[in-house]
Write a structure and sequence with these properties.
The structure holds 2 protein chains of 2 kinds. By secondary structure, chain A is of the alpha/beta class. Helices cover 42% and strands 23% of the residues of chain A. In chain A, a hairpin with a 3-residue loop joins β1 (2-3) and β2 (7-12). Chain A starts with a strand and ends with a helix. Helix content of chain B is 45%, strand content 17%. The longest helix of chain B is centred in the last third of the chain and has 23 residues, at 190-212. Chain B has helices spanning 22-28, 42-45, 50-57, 73-79, 97-105, 128-133, 147-157, 162-178, 185-188, 190-212; strands at 12-16, 35-40, 62-67, 70-71, 84-88, 92-96, 123-127, 139-141. Chain B is globular, with a radius of gyration of 18 Å. Classes of the chains: A alpha/beta, B alpha/beta. Chains A and B meet through α3, α4, α6 and α7 of A and α7, α8, α9 and α10 of B.
């Protein structure tokens, strides 16, 4: 099933498979973010599935947001009084809610990444309860190098996962880490071979569900 | 090692932990300071002016604890108050169960189980690399004059605006305070959303102003 212009969703034996499938290495354009909001709210959150696997089609999980488009979308939706924010753009609030909802789903959610997994793509990936990354993955929050910060749960979630010192270095520095360091830090749980991300996710899901059914 | 001998960057200051008192703060901190490195040893951490430290923590700076020589419980507790922690090579750490709990309770290691378990009541000596492996510190450097440290400082703090560094710092301060009271992720992520939109609007407005010119 194709959802919007940028996502594919299928179900097999009670497991949901959500694929990012958008141009430019699954760039998180506003259109992708809108599709994510539409698929999760209420969509997948109310489906009767036993587990969810989130993957990227092609070489990259996600090459992050288009920064100019992102800033324009904030400017179009935010209401301010001087420097004080009165209301957030609706899509931005919804996106944060969705990422948090994924993190709190009562079924196992496995995210499997390869290639680039950066910015809001990483924010989505970190919402998974089990996170796998392919060897050779490039992982990070480059927002600070554009004058921003990860604003849709990434700052908080990275601290939750890897502690304040390492999280602040990741967020403030905006540097990328490789798969080995991502696992060492605790951002991801396991490394898998580059072309076997989906197979590894399926295997892990089967193990988790088997364990649950005991 | 004395902080005064360290090479100071334009927007950073280096202070020995036992020098966090009025004279040093007034002399060394200007409005352009983004980051303060605080050199922590067990000996120095026992002489810290806690009130002054609290004042420093609420200031518009990122505090980086630099662990050196030998550190134990007092130093670990002081380091736990910092936003970031790094260590110098050759540092030894005497760690016991209580010190682990202290770090965990400060929310600095949320979600992280210690990779090395220490038996109740026992004490172990760790070196700086082991502490990095355990994620107590994020980096280990030979010394503060080493090129690796300078490069790291440039990577993390260079090319960032003061307002951006302060925004990121405030997010972490907010988490540190809030996580003791709530596990609501929506509430916890509010601070970063607010700062993200503010920074984005700052970029947008500056871009419009420059277009007008």
């Amino acid at each position: 099933m194709i959802i919007g212009d940028n996502l594919q969703y299928t179900e097999e034996e009670g497991i949901g498979y959500l694929y990012l499938d958008s141009p430019h290495g699954n760039r998180m354009s506003k259109s992708v973010l809108d599709d994510l909001i539409n698929v999760f709210d209420p969509g997948i959150l109310q489906l009767n599935i036993r587990g969810l696997i989130i993957l990227g089609k092609g070489r990259h999980f996600s090459s992050g947001a288009d920064v100019e488009e992102l800033i324009q979308s904030v400017a179009d939706g935010v209401r301010m009084d001087g420097e004080k924010i009165l209301t957030y753009p609706t899509w931005f609030s919804q996106l944060k809610t969705i990422f948090n909802a994924v993190a709190e789903m009562t079924i196992p959610v496995i995210t499997g990444v390869s290639g680039f997994c950066i910015g809001s793509g990483l924010e989505l990936a970190l919402a998974g309860s089990l996170r796998l990354c392919a060897k050779g993955s490039v992982i990070g929050f480059p927002e600070s190098t554009f004058g921003l910060l990860p604003g849709a749960t990434g700052t908080y979630r990275s601290m939750e996962l890897i502690g304040m010192s390492n999280s602040m270095e990741l967020v403030l520095g905006g540097q990328f880490v490789d798969a080995e360091n991502a696992v060492r830090l605790g951002l991801f749980h396991k490394i898998c071979p580059k072309k076997e991300v989906e197979a590894c996710c399926r295997k892990e899901m089967a193990l988790i569900l088997k364990e649950h059914e005991r | 090692m004395e902080a005064r001998k360290w090479n100071r960057k334009k927007h950073s200051r280096m202070i020995n932990a036992d020098e966090i008192h009025e004279d040093v703060l007034e002399r060394d901190l200007g409005s352009d300071v983004d980051v303060i490195f605080i050199y922590i040893t067990e000996h120095r951490s026992q002489k810290v002016d806690v009130d002054r430290l609290e004042g420093l923590m609420t200031g518009p700076y990122v505090l980086v604890g630099v662990l050196g020589e030998h550190v134990g419980e007092e130093a670990i507790a002081l380091a736990a108050k910092m936003h970031m922690r790094i260590a110098l090579e050759g540092t030894t750490y005497s760690v016991n169960t209580r010190a682990f709990r202290e770090l965990d309770g400060s929310s600095l290691l949320m979600g992280i189980e210690p990779t090395v378990m220490i038996q109740e009541g026992e004490r172990e000596i760790k070196d700086s690399d082991e502490l990095k492996e355990m994620r107590f510190v994020s980096q280990v450097f030979p010394d503060m004059e080493h090129e690796d440290f300078k490069e790291w400082e440039r990577d993390v703090f260079g090319n960032k605006t003061h307002s951006q560094i302060v925004a990121i710092k405030k997010c972490y301060d907010s988490y540190r305070g809030s996580t003791r009271n709530t596990k609501d992720r929506g509430l916890l992520a509010m601070e970063e959303g607010r700062h993200f939109c503010s920074l984005a609007m700052g970029i947008y407005n500056r871009s419009r102003e420059s277009e007008k010119r």
